[in-house]
Every structure is written in structure tokens, then in C-alpha cells.
């Protein structure tokens, strides 16, 4: 833990009880865990294509098998039950249920999600469904992908299709997961699928993802029961200037516009801020934003979901070298169009195996910031966790005290934010299982459960036992140093 997050006192930790009804869960994503890439009518997504392209992922790793969750979901749900999870957040593979991104569904694909959902409900675990976690059908990418307006309308059709199939079982629905990554890592820096490096395309993709969200919420509302909740999962950046200088404050403003307000502005307030347009005017004229789009995007939400891992420390560039340590992979192309004179810095202190600094105060700052920005809108943390270099010892046990310390610090930050007025309804650990970590392949382990990829053996780590006790009691224990 960083110096900014002191260990709690005994008195303080003894009062850290979360309220009854607080949702305790874990998250995964379809391409990262399912495998069965060519079974039952599924066709390639952009991540299939990207991962099979030489040089795109470490060691040439792909999600062809991943954690084989498609075949092992019953065992995985039983494992969730043993861990005491109250909810499971999963995503639907678009190309598994609608292989071309158009037209009728493949019933075998939908049947998998029906069966998974039924298994969860039978175990007393709430299903939380994400419609899009980065795996666009390749055929839609070939037609233009997210920079093309038509993709947003195809998403709305897909949302209605899945809603009609699972609306009788699922009450919590998320449209998009981290659209910033889809737009700016997929079309800007190219370190994520589809690997394009066009800053104008990245900005157009951001707008069309916003449009897809709004159209998707509207489509869901037409087919879901009134009790269903419609949400979106964003990965807002806790942006901090390195100093109070005018230049550093402006650097933070630029990154805030590109990381946060490009999505929260339209989704939460029905507007784009003028400084975003001014910063990017040399890249695009934003003619992709048509009359009526903002009204379509600005749909009422039942909750806002926040994914958080690490804050961003930025400054104006004061030399010829930019320290590009923003944690988004090596690339000659920036994921920050219009912010070429902004430098990213690594704060001192502990880091995860991703090289990301550990600072829970960023999470509490975001939660309290949204509480002020959209008072009355409930919040969920739908991803939070740490990659650690943990492996079984000679006895097969996997101890991961670093992850326990990370989770403890961040749950304490959530509790502090709630004490100050943030209406946080639940927390989802990322991730249930070690899995395919995108361009990093299988080299980074985020799971509370260790996966031996050769045998598919699941081994709950010490953090899984720790988290299970938190789920059972709703109480955050004392010093995490005693837990490992």
C-alpha cells in the first residue's frame, strides 16, 4: 500500500461493516474465459483476429481455449457458490449469439447464456450481464467498426435480441464495458483489437460507442420488465496534476476530457464539453455528431458502474522525452489524441505486476466525485483488482498477500466514500479466474482463483478465502498484513 493509504486503526477497522443488501460479486469477460472459439456457430470477433495476428499478443497467446468456461461453467458456478459470491458479472460474446452482427440469433449461443444464468439463479447468485466487453464481430469491423455510425444501430438490435432472450432471468444489465479502451486503445494506440492507429477514428469510435449505449438502453427498455436495471461500466481516470502550475493543471484538464468527460458528458448530461472539441479540432471536426444524437445518448440510468485500478499522474511536457507510463502497453501511437504535450508519470510506492501504482484514494475520489456530479444515482464498482505474480507452492497452495492488501485498501476506500455520502450498492472483484489478459496473453494473473492453463485446474488463492469471508460477513477485517 502507498504512503497515502495508512493502515486503519483497530477502532476504525472494527466499524467497517458494509450495509445489509450490499452486493458482493466477481467479474469476468467472455473472450477472456469462455474458449470454445469455433463451437456452436460462433464466428471470429476482432479479438480472435487480433490475437491470431503475429506480434499482437505476448507469446502469440489467444483466447481459443482460455479458461474453457464454456464447458466448465457448472463447476465454476459451484466454485462461486463455495466462495459465497452474491453476484456474477459476465459478458455475452456478440459473435456467439449473432455471428455476423446482424440478423437472427444463433439459438445454441443463447442457450449457453440461458443455461449459465439458470445455474447462477439455482445457486442463489445474481446474474449481472454485460452486453459488450470489446469483442465486436469481425464482420462489423470489416464494415467499418466503431468509427462507422451503423455499428451503433447494429448494437441496439443485438441488445434487443439478448434482452428478449434473457430478460425473464436477468435483472441487471450493462451496455458497454470501458468504452474508452474500445475507442482509444483499439483505434488510437492500436494495442487492443482491432489494432488501428488513427486518432480521428478513435474519436469517432468514442462518439459511436456513446450512441450505441443510448440506443442500447432504449432497446433494452422496450423488451425488459420494468424491474430491470440498465447501467454502463466506465473506467474513469482519477487524473492528478504533478504540480499546481498552470501548465500541469491544463495537462490534467486535457486528459480528464479524453478519459472521462468524452463519455460522462453525453451519457450523464447530454453534452460534449467545448474544451474537448477545441483540443481535438486539428484531428476531427466532430461532424460525426449529428442533430439529435445527444438526446439519444442521454438516457436515464438506474446506476453507474465504475472500474478502477490506478490513478493517473500527469504534467505538461517539459523536455523532449515523454514518460508514457500510463499502463496501456507499448506503442508508437498515443491513445490520447490532442494531448501530445502531456506526460504521464509513475508515482512512488508499490505497484502491481502490471506496473500500475497502488493508490486506493483514487477510487474514493472518483466515487465522491460522481456523488457530487450526479447526486442520487447509485454506484457499483464492477471491476477492481490487482495482477500479481503468484504461482502454487510445492504443496499446491497459492498465497497472494499482495492481492489481499490491495483489496483491503480499496474496500476501505469504498467504505470511506460511503461514509461521506456515496451511494455505493456493490463491489465486483476483478477477476474471479486468472484468464487471457488481452495483449498480455496469459502472463498476467488477476484472478482470486488460480488457473493452470494446461490442465484447467482451478485453485482458490488465499485472497479467495479472504474475500469469501468478507462476502459472508460484510465486514472488512483489520490489518491485511495478518491475513496472508
TrEMBL record:
This is Beta-glucosidase. Keywords: Carbohydrate metabolism, Cellulose degradation, Glycosidase, Hydrolase, Polysaccharide degradation. The active site is at 383 (nucleophile). Residues 1-13 have a biased composition (Low complexity). It is an enzyme of class 3 (hydrolase). Residues 1-20, 35-54, 320-339 are annotated as: Disordered. It catalyses: Hydrolysis of terminal, non-reducing beta-D-glucosyl residues with release of beta-D-glucose. Belongs to the glycosyl hydrolase 1 family. The keyword Hydrolase applies. It comes from Streptomyces hazeniae. Pfam families: Glyco_hydro_1 (PF00232). It comes from the Bacteria. Its EC number is 3.2.1.21. GO terms for molecular function: beta-glucosidase activity.
Amino acid at each position: 500500500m502507498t504512503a497515502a493509504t495508512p493502515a486503519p486503526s483497530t477502532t476504525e477497522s472494527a466499524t467497517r461493516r458494509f450495509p445489509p443488501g450490499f452486493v458482493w460479486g466477481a467479474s469476468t469477460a467472455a473472450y477472456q474465459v469462455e474458449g470454445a472459439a469455433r463451437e456452436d456457430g460462433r464466428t471470429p470477433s476482432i479479438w480472435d483476429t487480433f490475437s491470431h495476428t503475429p506480434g499482437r499478443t505476448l507469446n502469440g497467446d489467444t483466447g481459443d481455449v482460455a479458461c474453457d468456461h464454456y464447458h466448465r461453467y457448472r463447476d465454476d458456478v459451484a466454485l462461486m457458490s463455495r466462495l459465497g459470491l452474491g453476484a456474477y458479472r459476465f459478458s455475452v460474446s456478440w459473435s456467439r449469439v449473432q455471428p455476423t452482427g446482424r440478423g437472427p440469433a444463433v439459438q445454441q449461443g443463447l442457450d449457453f447464456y440461458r443455461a449459465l444464468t439458470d445455474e447462477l439463479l439455482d445457486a442463489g447468485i445474481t446474474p449481472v450481464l454485460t452486453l459488450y466487453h470489446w469483442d465486436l464481430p469481425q464482420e462489423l469491423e470489416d464494415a467499418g467498426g466503431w468509427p462507422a455510425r451503423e455499428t451503433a444501430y447494429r448494437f441496439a438490435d443485438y441488445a434487443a435480441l439478448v434482452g428478449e432472450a434473457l430478460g425473464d432471468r436477468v435483472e441487471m444489465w450493462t451496455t458497454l464495458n470501458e468504452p474508452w479502451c474500445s475507442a482509444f486503445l483499439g483505434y488510437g494506440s492500436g494495442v487492443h483489437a482491432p489494432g488501428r492507429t488513427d486518432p480521428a477514428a478513435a474519436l469517432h469510435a468514442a462518439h459511436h460507442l456513446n450512441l450505441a449505449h443510448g440506443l442500447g438502453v432504449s432497446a433494452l427498455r422496450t423488451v425488459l420488465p420494468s424491474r430491470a436495471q440498465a447501467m454502463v461500466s466506465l473506467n474513469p481516470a482519477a487524473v492528478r496534476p504533478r504540480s499546481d502550475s498552470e501548465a500541469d493543471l491544463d495537462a490534467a484538464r486535457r486528459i480528464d476530457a479524453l478519459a472521462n468527460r468524452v463519455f460522462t458528458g453525453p451519457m450523464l448530461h447530454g453534452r460534449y464539453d467545448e474544451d474537448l472539441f477545441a483540443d481535438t479540432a486539428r484531428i476531427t471536426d466532430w461532424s460525426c455528431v449529428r442533430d439529435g444524437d445527444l438526446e439519444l445518448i442521454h438516457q436515464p440510468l438506474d446506476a453507474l458502474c465504475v472500474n478502477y485500478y490506478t490513478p493517473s499522474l500527469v504534467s505538461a511536457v517539459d523536455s523532449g522525452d515523454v514518460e508514457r507510463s500510463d499502463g496501456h502497453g507499448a506503442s508508437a501511437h498515443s491513445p490520447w489524441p490532442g494531448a501530445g504535450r502531456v506526460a504521464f508519470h509513475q508515482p512512488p510506492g508499490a505497484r502491481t505486476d502490471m506496473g500500475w501504482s497502488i493508490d486506493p484514494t483514487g477510487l474514493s475520489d472518483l466515487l465522491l466525485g460522481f456523488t457530487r456530479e450526479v447526486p442520487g444515482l447509485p454506484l457499483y464498482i464492477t471491476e477492481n483488482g490487482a495482477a500479481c505474480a503468484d504461482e502454487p507452492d510445492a504443496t499446491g497452495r497459492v498465497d497472494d498477500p499482495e492481492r489481499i492488501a490491495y483489496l483491503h485498501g480499496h474496500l476501505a476506500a469504498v467504505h470511506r466514500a460511503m461514509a461521506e455520502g456515496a451511494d455505493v450498492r456493490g463491489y465486483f472483484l476483478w477477476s474471479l479466474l486468472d484468464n487471457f489478459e488481452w495483449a498480455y496473453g496469459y502472463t498476467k494473473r488477476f484472478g482470486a482463483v488460480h488457473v493452470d492453463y494446461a490442465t484447467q485446474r482451478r485453485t482458490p488463492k488465499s485472497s479467495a478465502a479472504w474475500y469469501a469471508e468478507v462476502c459472508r460477513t460484510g465486514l472488512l477485517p483489520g490489518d491485511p498484513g495478518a491475513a496472508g
